[in-house]
Specification:
By secondary structure, the protein is an alpha+beta fold. Helices cover 27% and strands 29% of the residues. It contains four helices and eleven strands. The strands form three sheets. Strands 2-1-3-4 form a four-stranded mixed sheet. The chain has a four-stranded antiparallel sheet with strand order 8-7-10-11, with helices on one face. It is globular. The N terminus is likely disordered.
C-alpha cells in the first residue's frame, strides 16, 4: 500500500511540472550531484543535462569532476581529489562495488546514470514526493499540537464557568485531542538552512529538527560556468561548458538536531575562485541530505 501511495505521489509531482512540488509548501531545494570527467566520452550529455537542471530553482545542481580518468590521455583541468574521495565514499555508503561516470546522486538517496534524462527526472520526482510527505507530516503534527492546546484552554475556561448543577464535567463535553501522527521511518527530517553575509564573514544558521541523527555540514565553493576546450583524450576537439563546478568542499560542522550557527571567515575562502556557495546538511556525512541552501554570485571579498 505504501508503494502505491509513493507511486501516486510521484505521478502527482510529475503532473505538476518541474516547480509544482514547491507550490504551497516550504520544501527545501533538492541536491543533485553529477560526477563527471573531461576524459569521459559519455559525459558531455550529462554535463548538458546538469546545465538545464541548474536553472531550476527547486534544485541545487553541482558538477564534481573526478580524477581517475586522467589516465585516458587528458588530465581534467577542473578535477580534484576531494571530489573523487566523495564519490568513492558514496559508493561505500550505498554498497556499490565501484564508481563510474557520468553518475548523478539525488539528495544522497539514489544514484542513476547521469545521461539518462528520464531516470534522472524520475529520481528527482521521487525525492520531491518523499519531501512532500515529510512536509505533510510536519503540518499534521503541528495541527495536532494546536488542537491539543486549544482543547486544554477550552477545558480551563469550562472549569472556571462550571455550575454545581452540571451533570457532567466540562472535560467530558470536549473532544479528545487528536494524537500526533508518528514519523514515517521512510521520511527524513526537514532542516532549515539560511545564509547571510557581512563584510568579514559568511553566517550560516541551521534550525532545530528533533529526531535528526548526527549529520555533517558541508560547504561547497562553486564556479557557476566554466568553458573548457579539450585538445586530447576521448573528448578531443570538443569545447564543453560545465555548470556549478565544485572547486572546493569541506566539512565545517556536525549537526545533532539542535539549532546551530556557524561562522566562516571570508579570509578563509579568499584563495578559492568561486561565485557561489552551497551548504548541505547530510546524515552521517554521505547519507540522506536533510537540509541545503545556496547563494549565487556572492561578494566574498571584504571592501577596503
Amino acid at each position: 500500500m505504501r508503494s502505491l501511495r509513493l507511486v501516486l505521489s510521484v505521478a502527482a509531482v510529475l503532473a505538476l511540472g518541474p516547480h509544482g512540488a514547491e507550490a504551497g509548501s516550504a520544501q527545501r531545494p533538492i541536491v543533485v550531484e553529477l560526477y563527471t570527467s573531461q576524459g569521459c566520452s559519455s559525459c558531455p550529455p550529462a554535463d548538458a543535462l546538469l546545465g538545464r537542471l541548474a536553472q531550476r530553482p527547486n534544485l541545487i545542481a553541482l558538477s564534481l569532476p573526478i580524477t581517475y580518468w586522467d589516465m585516458l590521455g587528458w588530465k581534467d583541468t577542473l578535477a580534484s581529489d576531494a571530489n573523487t574521495r566523495r564519490q568513492k565514499a558514496y559508493a561505500a555508503a550505498m554498497g556499490h562495488g565501484g564508481v563510474y561516470t557520468p553518475q548523478i546522486i539525488v539528495d544522497g538517496v539514489i544514484d542513476v546514470v547521469g545521461s539518462r534524462v528520464a531516470n534522472v527526472d524520475a529520481a528527482i520526482a521521487m525525492r520531491q514526493a518523499q519531501l512532500a510527505e515529510a512536509q505533510a507530516m510536519v503540518v499534521a503534527r503541528g495541527d495536532a499540537a494546536r488542537y491539543a492546546a486549544e482543547a486544554v484552554r477550552a477545558q480551563a475556561v469550562a472549569a472556571d464557568a462550571a455550575q454545581p448543577v452540571a451533570a457532567r464535567s466540562a472535560s467530558a463535553l470536549l473532544p479528545a485531542p487528536l494524537p500526533q501522527p508518528p514519523a514515517s521511518p521512510h521520511t527524513d527530517p526537514l532542516v532549515s538552512v539560511a545564509m547571510r553575509q557581512t563584510l568579514q564573514d559568511l553566517l550560516i544558521d541551521i534550525g532545530a529538527a528533533p529526531g535528526a541523527r548526527d549529520a555533517t555540514v558541508w560547504l561547497f565553493h562553486l564556479r557557476s560556468q566554466v568553458s573548457v576546450k579539450i585538445p586530447s583524450g576521448e573528448n578531443e576537439g570538443h569545447t564543453i561548458v560545465y555548470h556549478n563546478v565544485v572547486g572546493g568542499l569541506r566539512a565545517i560542522g556536525t549537526y545533532k538536531g539542535r539549532a546551530l550557527a556557524i561562522t566562516v571567515p571570508r579570509a578563509a575562502m579568499a584563495n578559492l575562485p568561486h561565485d557561489g556557495i552551497a551548504v548541505v546538511v547530510q546524515q552521517g556525512g554521505y547519507g540522506h541530505v536533510i537540509g541545503a541552501a545556496y547563494i549565487s554570485r556572492p561578494d566574498y571579498y571584504a571592501s577596503q
